[in-house]
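[Discussion] Sanity-checking designs against the backbone

I'm trying to build intuition for which residues belong where. Below is a structure token string of 128 positions. I'd appreciate it if someone posts a full sequence so I can compare it with mine line by line.
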């Protein structure tokens, strides 16, 4: 789902439909325009076109992993100020990314509290 407005863009890169719906509603409630992307290949193609303010990123995606997408994001100069919120049910894979080395990264294990996500993205929206 894409909304056109002056609201900052949030990409939701998540293959689970229920999770992506919850994340999308939460981000829209926090004032973001949202776009859901269901696989890693499509995510990379879209990231070549847009500069989102925030990305929610699942690690276990079809075609291209969330870990590869995260690496791509951090190698692109124009995406350096993009906030990345990794949400995964796989604690081991999530632990392979060191959030202490990236001040614009947050990691959460699923299930994540909707209230927690909304507080975070609301605060990030105010941060430029």
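Best answer:
Here's mine. Compare freely.
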């Amino acid at each position: 789902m894409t909304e056109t407005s002056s609201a900052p863009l949030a990409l939701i890169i998540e293959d689970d439909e229920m999770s992506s719906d919850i994340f999308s509603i939460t981000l829209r409630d926090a004032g973001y325009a949202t776009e859901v992307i269901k696989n890693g290949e499509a995510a990379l193609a879209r990231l070549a076109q847009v500069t989102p303010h925030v990305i929610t990123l699942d690690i276990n995606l079809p075609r291209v992993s969330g870990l590869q997408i995260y690496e791509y994001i951090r190698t692109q100069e124009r995406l350096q100020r993009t906030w990345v919120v990794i949400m995964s049910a796989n604690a081991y894979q999530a632990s392979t990314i060191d959030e202490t080395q990236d001040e614009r990264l947050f990691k959460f294990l699923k299930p994540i509290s909707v209230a927690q996500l909304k507080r975070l993205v609301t605060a990030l929206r105010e941060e430029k």
